[in-house]
Amino acid sequence: MGHKSLATIIALQRKTTNIRNLCILAHVDHGKTTLADSLVASNGIISSRLAGKLRYLDSREDEQIRGITMKSSAISLHFPLGMNEYLINLIDSPGHVDFSSEVSTAVRLCDGAIVIVDAVEGVCPQTQVVLRQAWLENIRPVLVINKIDRLIVELKLTPQEAYIHLKKILEQVNAVTGTLFTSKVMEERAEKESEKQGPYENSGGEQIYDWSAGLEDTDDSHLYFSPDQGNVVFASAIDGWGFSIHQFAQIYSQKMGIRVEVLLKTLWGDFYLNAKAKKIMKGAQSKGKKPLFVQLVLDNLWSLYDAIVMKRDKEKVEKMVASLGVKVAARDLRHSDPKVLLSAVCSQWLPVSQAVLTMVCEKLPSPLDVASERVEKLMSVGARRFDSLPERTQELKKAFLECSNEDAAPVIVFVSKMFAVDSKALPQNKQRPLTQEEIAQRRELARQRHAERLAANQVSENPESANTDTDVNCSFPKGQHSEESKEHFVAFARVYSGVVRRGTKVFVLGPKYDPAQALKMLPEGCSSADALPSVPHMSCCTLDSLYLLMGRELEELEEVPSGNVLGIGGMEEWILKSATISTSPACPPFTPLNFEATPIVRVAIEPKHPSEMPRLVKGMKLLNQADPCAEVLIQETGEHVLVTAGEVHLQRCLDDLRERFAQIEISASKPIIPFRETVIRRPKVDMVNEELGKQQKVAVIHQSKEEQYKYPEGVQVDSSGLVTLTTPNKMATIGVRAMPLPEEVTQLLEANGSLIRTMEQFSLSMKEGKALEINQRTLESIQDFKGKLESHLQGRKWRDAVNRIWSFGPRRCGPNLLLNNLESYQRPSVWQCLEGERVPGTALRDFDNSIISGFQLATLSGPMCEEPLMGVCLSVERWDMKLPSLGSHQDSMDGEEKVSDGDSKQKAAQEPWGAAEAYGSHNKRWPDVSVDCYGPFSGQLIAAMKEACRHAFQHQPQRLMAAMYTCEIMATAEVLGRVYGVLSKREGRILQEEMKEGTDMFIIKAVLPVAESFGFADEIRKRTSGLASPQLVFSHWEVVSSDPFWVPTTEEEYLHFGEKADSSNQALKYMNGVRKRKGLYVEEKIVEHAEKQRTLGKNK
Ligand SMILES: Nc1nc2c(ncn2[C@@H]2O[C@H](COP(=O)(O)OP(=O)(O)OP(=O)(O)O)[C@@H](O)[C@H]2O)c(=O)[nH]1
Ligand SMILES: [Mg+2]
What we know:
It contains 36 helices and 34 strands.
């Protein structure tokens, strides 16, 4: 990068109104990096001939080889427009689903986005996702419809057809925006409503609300993409052209003498030119006329392509070139590839960078235009609301809005990710081109040395040695080599307020930092330079290097004013993945990034040579830091596990580990596929779909009698499925029954994990005697959640179940329920927080917690293959306790007598021996009871509860649940059959198939088990010669229909499957796979009557 342009950029960084921070978002392969190339070329960083081919921002080798972007990277460009100069901080993001976390990190730092849509493929799944992400972050999008050349060359549409096609694409995009907008208005309205309700509730005032209100009086016209609004550009990034209708309006207003404003309104839409009347009229479609857009814009483009690419009509081309007034080099005219000529003409006539950057500068907001709504959203974490933050924190909102460059303004920086760079790439280690004086100086030095050497050797030679240049190179400071292998991390960040300078001391605030807590601990008016007491999630450090991000290169900077994107070096010790940096301790941590992808693919990693383990561990740590989405953990088995978002992401992480972070040979296990275990209702039909009639039932009963055998001593199962178990010391007996939960309930539980966790925290704090404050909005969602649960848990079996919930599991927030169906035991409900009057410290029956712990353990790993349970309800129907002191009393104690009322503990708290009175029917002191909570007995109870749950589970028909991906595949009719073939081979299921309008493509929506997905994308690509490439996104858990424990019992089944029934059983295969991996016992059929195969002819 030349010094001049660096100086320009540094100067522009201070003109906040002229800064645009934006990212390019799109579905995979819609041309983001290609477009970025054209924009980069406009600054002379790469040659315009190479633009579109180089993919400059794809700086990694694997990105170039695979042709997809994997990391988002930033570059700063300057752009003169009229009297103004603009600074564009551009971030290119990946489109592949596996890397959607990189998109989140990019979107957070921007104020606007260029959304690209492929003119042929239209709106694709990732397009919707990125539009949603832009929406969630409150950033404004503009649209580029790219690859229009494909409509001409590939689809061979006429201009009229192309116009209709483009209109449809715009409608699709606007439909997505529309849905997002309506949902937001609804949400806001509901929020306002709830705020209003507060005082009304007390006054008892009745409110009638009009449900459609809010939508009508909110102006949404600026949200939609429309060429006449100036927020749409039509382009072909690869051929280097692009335009907005403004450009054509300008051209034709001069030619035809129509005012620009009129043309702007009519160039896009149902208008046509009445040549006779010299007027623009409405109703082109109904009158069968050519719309203006076709006549004035598309026709020209089409004839240009026709002349240059299709017909190669030299004369016509020359005429056109002359009439367009562009200059084309003679060698381009003669070039054998017509595309060269095409881009030479087009990039002068309608340069894409001009069109896109003009739109960006005019339509996207500068950092100063940040909406106050966005600031509040960024500042309030989790359930906390902006107005509940400390006052000093709220004051910082002003700093955000002002985005001031004054020295007095507090520095606020957000780091959205850390990325690794080679130490060679750092500017301080780079070989800087020498200035003239330095070269002269060095030459002089070398000459002197040379002369000295000559004198020493006393050999007379020509002093003008030819080697001076090499000497110059050699005289670089040594000592870089030792550092070379070290990884350097650069923080990808943006300044929201103040000026960041090198050497500034700052606070680094982790995502869990709480300003309210810190402000209480820290002295008033302290700064990061003072010696301060340690505050959780806060550390102090000095910023030692600041960089301008220039794609593959970094330029060192002294200071960065607010509103700019920057890189910060030397932060690896303070920041893991993301952080907030500020000079004020009142600054809240920014809301966490919205990650769309769930990391689901896990592999265990080992070094090839065991001695290299420490390097692997170190390498994995680095990888964890360098990737926003990858997770690294050590499993209970001691394996080092890497969790990634998908196969491509996994591949990249492994490559990174091998070549960069660990630099050792590693071997990765096959992907570890997660499963869930569940129970279902007893099936009414057998495996051959025959109803289980009376006759066959005999066989089934026979079988279940055999099952009885499996239960160890002390476990009793009655015919209704109630499993009763007594602890080894015979002091407690527990009866548990397992039932399947309705599917909707499981989904509801899964979706509301964080609410359940809040409820759990509340119950915990109640137990400790304090009441945790939960804000109104969270309470409402809890109420809503409870209501939904009640509506799904209907029927005799579930009577009052919601109020009887004892706990959720595993980890106290999972998709399984523990119900308290004990007649005699009333415990505080899990919905405590909803109850008006709160009595902290309500006591529980002793050992209540042991029951919960047992349930947690049981749900964390089920009996089939030690995977977590899902969708199971365990209901406790018996819990008898015999206390040692009462050992002589043989009467069954059903709890009530002994532990009747809730205040036993309260009393116990007041007087140490009070507990005895609670057990007072015998008036005997039993001091050990409170102590015993920690003793071996609670352990026995936990174990008994766990066992009871497991047996109860096993008594029901058990099933595995598999994780499912959804995928959307676009394929042409010819390869459709092969796509189906691959899908059905891998147990996939087609959900939907439709034809994409205006093309010969089919869109297939399918679900596919994660377990079958490895190599799927590759296989599809190979089988269809690269025409179809699926994007796999985790969607849900699904019950695998086959029973892993199935053996033929009915006659029909014997008939169908034979005695051994050794045809493949999908569930059994999965289950045994997991068991084998975990080192559990696997019951496998050994070949029983093996016969040696003989080659009969020979032996006889
Ligand atoms: N015909 C045509 N092809 C294009 C155009 N723009 C890009 N391409 C091609 O589309 C392919 C993908 O382009 P990229 O720029 O890598 O796409 P991307 O959106 O950056 O892809 P990811 O970063 O992987 O999401 C490349 O082969 C380009 O040559 C265009 O305007 N017309
Ligand atoms: Mg790309």
